[in-house]
Amino acid sequence: MTRAALAIDLGGTELRAAVVEAMGRVAAFAATPTDALGGPQAVIAQMEALIGQVRAETPGASIVGLGIGAPGPLDPDAGVVVDAPTLQGWRDVPLAAILSERLGVQVKLENDANAAALGEWRFGAGQGTQSMVFITVSTGLGGGVIVDGHLLHGRRGLAGEIGHMTISERPERCACGGVGCWEAFASGTALAREAARLVASGDAPEMARLAGGRPVTGRHVAEAAQKGDVPALKLLDDEARWLGIGLTNLLHLYSPERLILGGGVGSLLPLMHETIKQTIRERAMSAFRDVPVVAAALGRNAGLVGAASLVLKGAA
Fold first, then answer.
1. How far is Cα 247 from Cα 235, in angstroms, rounded to an integer?
2. Is residue 242 part of a domain?
3. Strand 141-147 versus strand 150-151 pairing type
4. Whose CA is closest to 221, among 199, 200, 202?
5. 69, 134, 231, 309: which sits with the fewest CB atoms below 10 Å from its CB?
6. Cα(59)–Cα(135) distance, rounded to whole angstroms?
């Protein structure tokens, strides 16, 4: 039988489950909209249903356990979701213990961004490194840090909240409530905000056309930029500069061998790479300037593969 693990990626919008084989291949996959307002029991019931579905698709798999990537803050050692702001009623939920009892398997819990970092480190663009930082740039901006072959957890598992480094005195409010956060300037939400301002001024007709009266998004910016639209290219150049500033901080903080960029905006790295590199050259100490910035390899499966690796390879 093939050695494999169950994996869950718990998001506020979508709940995803998979069976992942020992070498990182996703053998079965299922997803459903998360019942975010239904409370823990409703979502746990959804998890059980999805797990039943993927297990039925892989009868030849020898399941060694279940790994879960979930929004924090959480306590990975205790297996408890402390407070998931995108999920109603999720306070101090002993998720690992509940599912272990119901499914009869070992269960390990990890922050979702950390799980994605583990996936890229063990099976993706971070393979072969001992120290790397994974950065996901989508609606928000987060990531995970591997230092000397170990996932950095810190007090209460809260290390690596890289999106909330303060990088500017400009009073842009972040979703966390603070001002000046990297996320407030370099996330997909920030890119869409700047695009909306440009569209409202009448200076971005191509992005306005693509949006078609709907709210403009980072995807519209990307589509316009790929067509050579000058305002969209300028927005991505600004985005790359903000990313480069934050990445320089990460180089100085963690001295990684590789910076790995993922997420929806991160997938636009080819359009931003030169400006990111130039910003790093201008701001980083010389010893850090040769560290490569590369694209994530696992795409949307990084979190699932990383969560599975918690039980396939043991916690980092």
1. 18
2. yes
3. antiparallel
4. 199
5. 231
6. 35
Residue 125 gets the label, from left (phi > 0), alpha (psi -120 to 50) or beta, of alpha
The answer to whether 35 touches 46, Cβ cutoff 8 Å, is yes
35 lies in which domain range? 2-111+300-312
* Long-range CB contacts (within 8 A, 24+) of 181-187: 182/141, 182/242, 182/245, 182/246, 182/249, 183/140, 183/141, 183/142, 185/242, 186/137, 186/141, 186/239, 186/242, 186/243, 186/246, 186/265, 187/137, 187/138, 187/139, 187/140, 187/141, 187/163, 187/265
pTM for the full predicted model: 0.89
Is it true that the peptide bond before 231 is cis, omega within 30 degrees of 0?
A: no
Tell me, rounded to whole angstroms, the distance of Cα 61 from its chain centroid: 28
- CA-nearest of 112, 93, 114 to 13 is 112
Element (H, E) at 81: strand 80-83
Q: Determine the pLDDT at residue 148.
A: 97
C-alpha 118/C-alpha 220 separation (Å) is: 31
Q: pLDDT means per 10 residues in the chain (316 residues)?
A: 94 93 96 96 98 96 96 89 89 97 96 94 96 93 94 86 93 90 94 96 96 93 94 97 98 98 91 97 97 95 95 69
For 201, the token pair is 């001024």
| Exposure class string for 255-272: b at 16+ Cβ within 10 A, else e | ebebbbbbbbbbbbbebb
Same domain, 247 and 172: yes
For residue 253, give the CATH number of its domain: 3.30.420.40
Report the pLDDT value the prediction gives residue 308, as an integer from 0 to 100: 97
Q: Say yes or no: 137 and 274 in one domain.
A: yes
Calpha distance 241→260 (Å, rounded): 16
Report yes or no on 282 lying in a domain: yes
